[in-house]
Design goal:
The protein has 135 residues and is mainly alpha-helical. It has 1 helix and no strands.
């Protein structure tokens, strides 16, 4: 009895068409999603390359700065050595100057003593000559 009449439950052709349409939508969305992920991969790849370049530039800078630091350290050590050499020469000269001043003080003291003696001797000689003239 049901022979020529379509079933009430639904048209199988229509159901298949709907299913195909649904699968096409899913497929289209999947393709969109895949393109989106491909773009994201390209962006991340580009970003990674840029980061690598920046890291290489920074490493180069670090290397150059380390060389400069080494050169400055070397220069500072050489300056310190020179300063120590100059300081020891200064101390030596200061010591020699102190000794020379001490010798000069001694010599001046001796000169003053000799002057005093010569004055004493001179006045005694003058006194004795006066005494002799009075006789």
């Amino acid at each position: 009895e049901d022979g020529g009449r379509p079933q009430r439950d639904g048209d199988p052709v229509r159901e298949l068409e709907n299913e195909v349409e649904s699968e096409q939508k899913k497929s289209g969305e999947a393709v969109k999603g895949m393109r989106k992920y491909e773009r994201r991969i390209k962006e991340l790849t580009y970003q990674t390359e840029e980061d690598r370049k920046n890291v290489a530039r920074l490493q180069d800078l670090v290397d150059k700065l380390q060389l400069k630091v080494k050169a400055y350290k070397r220069a500072a050590e050489e300056s310190e050595e020179q300063a120590n050499t100059h300081m020891s020469k200064f101390r030596k000269l200061q010591h020699e100057l102190d000794e020379a001043e001490e010798r000069a003080d001694i010599a001046e003291s001796q000169v003053n003593k000799l002057r005093a003696k010569s004055r004493d001797v001179g006045s005694k000689v003058r006194d004795s000559t006066r005494f002799e003239h009075k006789k």
